[in-house]
């Protein structure tokens, strides 16, 4: 048996007795799908968390702190008019389904068409997904999620790092290359200009993602 904690799955010994109670975190480990998520999530009694899934294994992580929320909102606002120009939409957290048993909840995303109330968004509809890196998700946001999104064919992945204690802000835009992995397309630190023409024209100082 196993139980799921933030960002990792840790095996544990089976209990010495069987209470007979159904625990979806245990019983469904390794077989999670959106249909099962609709049926059993959120878990009653648990604090508000993000539920993501990789190859049927549920990943539970805390919601972002205010620094990341502010940065994600700012980026969504900058991307929204561009998304509308292609008859799409820009959003904060959505369920982006990458495979039948894998999904992520990026901090912001641009869709090729409006979500219009849908709970599960196929990866084919995502033009760009973005993650604001936090201590609990550093490995996932830097390695795991980009790899999963590239495999799903999402054209752009934006990684953002902000820190008020270090007065630091950094944006990295990755673009899907012909060989199926991401390459750095544009990158900038606070005090310089992040500039790109793809997928939309953007030009601003990453320091603007830090709240005054």
Automatic annotation (TrEMBL):
The keyword GTP-binding does not apply. InterPro entries: Nuclease_put_TT1808 (IPR012296), Restrct_endonuc-II-like (IPR011335), Uma2 (IPR008538). GO terms for molecular function: endonuclease activity. Residues 40-201 form the Putative restriction endonuclease domain. Transmembrane segments: none annotated. It holds the Pfam family Uma2. Keywords: Endonuclease, Hydrolase, Nuclease. This is Putative restriction endonuclease.
